[in-house]
Amino acid sequence: MPDAEAGLLDRWRVLLFAVTTGILVANLYYVQPLLAAVASSFGRSVTSAGYLVTFTQLGYALGLLLVVPLGDVLDRRRLLSGMLVINVVGLVAAAVSPGFGSFAAASLVTGCTSSAAMVVIPYAASKAPEATRGRTIGQIMTGLLLGILLARTVSGFVAVWAGWRSMYLIAAVAVAVLLVALHVAIPPEGARGRLVYRRLLWSLLDLARSEPELRRRSVYTALGLGSFSTLWTGLTFLLSGAPYHYSEARIGLFGLLGAAGAVAANEAGRLSDRGHVNKSTGAFAAVLLLSWGVLAAGGLSIWAVGVGVFLLDVGAQGLQVTHQSVIYRLAPHARSRITAVYMTSAFIGAAAGSAIASGSFAVAGWTGLCLMGAVMPLVILLMWGFGQSRGSVQNG
């Protein structure tokens, strides 16, 4: 449906889309508070198990790059249905995996098909009116971000109650329910273009070349989500060891602190609708950098961990919504491909952040991890400040 025909999304569909993105993206994060338990099951160290997070996120990046662009030409209801069926299979395979290798393979499949969340968001953006698109995206992104954060809380408690494998069976049931609900809520569209798959993928490069704002926001999101992922992978290393020795359930509770920061998503959407994306970018990047200064004291103070987690999620979530409110104003005919370029960058950053967390913690402990996490928002601020000064010179 072209933008001129875009009707208002009713609130129940917006809610369904928010829940959908939350449940799908949660699949990537269930394992984080379970790393110690999963490592024990497979006879691996906790830090080596941390690379399972990287595997899942790389799968997500592959889905974004190779599958999500199809949303610009195929019937999105059929595309979503196919992805969710395979997602259920991947989650069940993870639940019954006999070893580390099979679990990693199942994680790759699950991550790849969980990228269906990024078919939903451009679909909603195409149906929302221009004047409220930022707010609509902010509401759906709130669901996605809550899924990222509450996944840890839920999986921690489920692991204590019924074992870590049960979490993946529960997730499979949740996705199966979504499959039915989305099939009912989204009308069939039919094909919206002629599919030449190779040309479709090459067009991603054309978009990146022709849209400098897309390139800029893609770099920003890779750095921001990389910083976010560094914390949430490394937090398990800190809290499961001395001096805390927390259980999976207690580690998962820290997701609630991050979820409290999800209010930033709605506020960022409103600021974007009012034209404040530039100031929002600098402000949320500064909050993200500040959070690492607080988190650095986390080796000695659990209060510092809590405050730092909250601040980090405010900064990271605010940046995500700000970026997306910008990119969905570009090339309305290619929103799925714009999403693919942007979110592939985001989850390459996230996968790198998880790997950085494992490597830096093994080499230099919590202090080294915090230093690496802080570098990324610092680079965002430097890039943003350079852009500001260059714009001032040009305007002068």
Can you characterise this structure?
There is one protein chain. With 396 residues, this protein is mainly alpha-helical. The chain has a single domain, classed as MFS general substrate transporter like domains (Growth Hormone, Chain: A, Up-down Bundle), CATH 1.20.1250. It is built from 17 helices and no strands. The chain has helices at 11-26, 35-42, 46-49, 51-66, 76-95, 100-114, 117-127, 133-162, 164-185, 197-210, 212-240, 248-252, 254-260, 263-273, 277-295, 302-327, 335-395. Helix 5 (76-95) packs antiparallel against helix 9 and helix 15 (277-295) crosses helix 17 (335-395).
Topology:
Elements: H1 11-26, H2 35-42, H3 46-49, H4 51-66, H5 76-95, H6 100-114, H7 117-127, H8 133-162, H9 164-185, H10 197-210, H11 212-240, H12 248-252, H13 254-260, H14 263-273, H15 277-295, H16 302-327, H17 335-395
Question: What does this entry show, briefly?
Answer:
The chain is mostly helical and 396 residues long. The chain has a single domain (3-389), classed as Up-down Bundle (Growth Hormone, Chain: A), CATH 1.20.1250. It has helices at residues 11-26, 35-42, 46-49, 51-66, 76-95, 100-114, 117-127, 133-162, 164-185, 197-210, 212-240, 248-252, 254-260, 263-273, 277-295, 302-327, 335-395.
